[in-house]
DNA sequence: ATTGACGGACGTACACCGTACGTGCCACGC
DNA sequence: GCGTGGCACGTACGGTGTACGTCCGTCAAT
């Protein structure tokens, strides 16, 4: 007597749960079925195959982005907020992040963030082509940042101090690394992310100014 | 009569070859052994397990970066060159790129690029901590860019035009996407990469100016 | 020269994986 | 009453990573 009749959302939720608990490697159709107390092949009545299931996982995680867009705020603040929203879901589903960025999703799941971002950039005065370029640049930076974050803490396990690794390098061959061993081994991801984001925001801000000046001329 | 006696580099080379020919999904110990004309378990005399083999693949690919660093050039040009060198290996081993960025490598393989980059930034006048932050930002951007490039062309197969996908969205729900469908569906990766890199270079250039001014004050 | 140890190539075996296919149950429209 | 279609499920097949045991060539010590 299954209280709930095994639907696609339930399967996806179980998959996300499993990934967060035991990592992406632990995912198998048998394991998900066992967690749901269900036969393995029953899953295939709702999901065509494992790849599609993982796509659905990515889609679901991505659609969990919460936008608190304030149309009255400065456009730079809106850009900042949207970038942070992107990063926050990665903190909510840390183990799933690798799954999300690994599979390129050509579905409509990530479309709402794209729409919002483009609208913000257009309202800031950027042209269409330029807005797309800027958006792609931001996405690249965000994805790369998240990849490092989840890579360095794949299990949130004891972050075995890699400091020793950096201090063990040959000072003659790698003088800079040797001097900066402390800075290289520690990493405040939040501050790091904000630093890069601020640089990007200011870069496109000055680019907008130049564009406006050129228009006036 | 094995002409060459099956060494670890030979195994890694076979793995890279296989990945480039048939994609990362085709990699299996049995398949690699077959390509080498060798029994499966013989591989384990040189490689502890499959994960270590893939780590070695990442390490080997990464160590193939060619640096043509010109110490006399402007520091911005040196940064540009190093970023491009990073991207070029991804073009040389397109299918391996996902493997490289997927596994976080804490080995000494990627250390030389790090050393060069830090030296360049330090010589440009950046402080130690700031140089590390800037380097991390660049790496995030580059990794994110490469991930999009290899994601969009996982097999270099016919890039089934996703234009239709963008044009099919509801214009009422996604007006910006609808208007910019053409820009979103086409992507000149090279130009896109250069655009973002230029923005980053100029951003840190103005940051350096501000820092210098503050020092003078 | 004989022997012993040893490293590497290999086959077998096991647990697990994704999933194609067939079977049975149950709720429904006629 | 009777199809009929959807859904849960079991079985089975080909593939995977790898632990373990076996065999054999080489080389050091006796």
Automatic annotation (TrEMBL), chains A, B:
It comes from the Bacteria. The keyword Repressor applies. Pfam families: TetR_C_1, TetR_N. One of its GO terms (molecular function) is transcription cis-regulatory region binding. Keywords: DNA-binding, Repressor, Transcription, Transcription regulation. SUPFAM superfamilies: Homeodomain-like, Tetracyclin repressor-like, C-terminal domain. The keyword Transport does not apply. Residues 28-47 bind DNA. Residues 5-65 form the HTH tetR-type domain. GO terms for biological process: negative regulation of DNA-templated transcription; response to antibiotic. InterPro entries: Homeodomain-like_sf (IPR009057), HTH-type_TetR-like_transc_reg (IPR050109), HTH_TetR (IPR001647), Repressor_TetR_C (IPR004111), Tet_transcr_reg_TetR (IPR003012), Tet_transcr_reg_TetR-rel_C_sf (IPR036271). This is TetR family transcriptional regulator.
